[in-house]
Amino acid sequence: MKTKAAVLYEMGAPAPYSESKPLRIEEITLAGPGAGEVLVEIAGAGLCHSDLSVVDGSRPRTMPMVMGHEASGIVREVGAEVSDFTPGDQVVFSFVPICGRCRFCASGRGALCEPGAQANIAGTLLSGARRFADSNATVCNHHLGVSAFSQFTVAAQESLVKIDASLPLAMAALFGCAVMTGVGAIVNTARVMPGTSVAVFGMGGVGLSAIMGARAAGAYPIIAVDKLADKLTLASEVGATHTINAAEDDPIAAVRELTGGGVENALESVGNEQVLIQAYQATKRGGTTITIGLPAPGKMFSIPAVSLTLEERTIKGSYMGSSVPRRDIPRYIGMYLAGLLPVDKLHTHTLRLDEINLGFDRLAQGLAVRQIVEFS
User: What letter does residue 230 receive in the DSSP assignment?
Assistant: First the structure.
């Protein structure tokens, strides 16, 4: 079948992207689902910094690639050996396909699924297949097993989570990355307890979701740190009790002053190693620093080694919110429907597919939180 899609042929194009147009909107060919695979019509696809890091070349992937990894849609066809989905099901995508059989999946750590990670690095589905080809018959790679910037996509059934049909479908896309990652970092990685202090550095979609999760978990105080005043205002609306403008004040000193020496849980969601150092320095003795953001692969950071022992400090990574998608996405949706997670506030812009390069300009300039490409 034919599908209109945003294809990235070369990374590192100069900004503004609305002029260089690194994502080309083309009609390409999509093969039908193979065994264990599902054809999905995309309803909504969010623009995330993880997409931008591929576009700008800071996180290399195999080209050409149909981009996008945060999405929702409707099942239109299922391949052989698919038992969990039927046409008409509404689904959210997991950007790591969870095989369910490797040592990490067996121990409840699906975000670290080994076959899923290998497929994502290779740009294939979980089976190793690629289902896209452009007008020159060049095979196109899949972005994180999703390839959401396409009217239709084929995904492994392990990349899909069936959701409650009462949720607005385009909005449901945000639960596949921003919400799962941010709320999951609070609930699964940090295991924040009521009354414990939290600071989140970086108020993008993931950081704001972490603020929501901290409020739902009963944390106090909940401190939002960013350089943009409008994002700090939004952080207050979704649950932050205090805000710090890092462009005006030293965030380390400000967090320490607010909390009498530092927070019990500091989360870095920028993907910047210098901000991670700030988050570590804002964490109290005995506390935990969690990194959610994805720095460029070559970046390093250093801390006083003695502090880990002398102060019983912990540094943890949180990928995909340490989530089990089929467990966590439905419960976060339930929390949203119950009014506990104001996810609607993350949605700042709606785009057509042919406006996607402009959308990445907004994202790079910090002018948007979550933009959703809606397909009709």
Answer: H
> Measured between alpha carbons, how far is 116 from 154 in angstroms, rounded to an integer?
15
Of the candidates 146, 177, 133, the one whose C-alpha atom is nearest the C-alpha of residue 73 is 146
- Asked whether residue 11 falls in the same domain as residue 137, the answer is yes
Whether residue 332 is contained in a domain is answered as no
Q: Specify the DSSP element, H or E, that contains 2.
A: strand 2-8
* Domain limits for position 200: 182-318
Dihedral of the alpha carbons of 164, 168, 170, 172, in degrees to the nearest 10:
-40
Strand-pair category, 139-142 with 152-156:
unpaired
**DSSP letter assigned to residue 159:** G
Tokens of 260: 């009498």
The CATH number of the domain holding residue 241 is 3.40.50.720
Please state whether the predicted TM-score (pTM) of the whole model is above 0.85. Answer: yes
CATH number of the domain encompassing residue 151:
3.90.180.10
Q: What would the pLDDT profile of 76-117 be if each residue is shown by its tens digit?
A: 999 999 999 999 999 999 999 999 999 999 999 999 999 999
- What is the total residue count of the chain? 376
Residue 62 contacts residue 141 (beta carbons within 8 Å):
yes
The amino acid sitting at 353 is: L
| pLDDT tens digits for range 180-205 | 999 999 999 999 999 999 999 999 99
Q: How far apart are CA 316 and CA 154, in angstroms?
A: 34
Same domain? 15 vs 160 = yes
Q: What is the DSSP letter of 154?
A: E
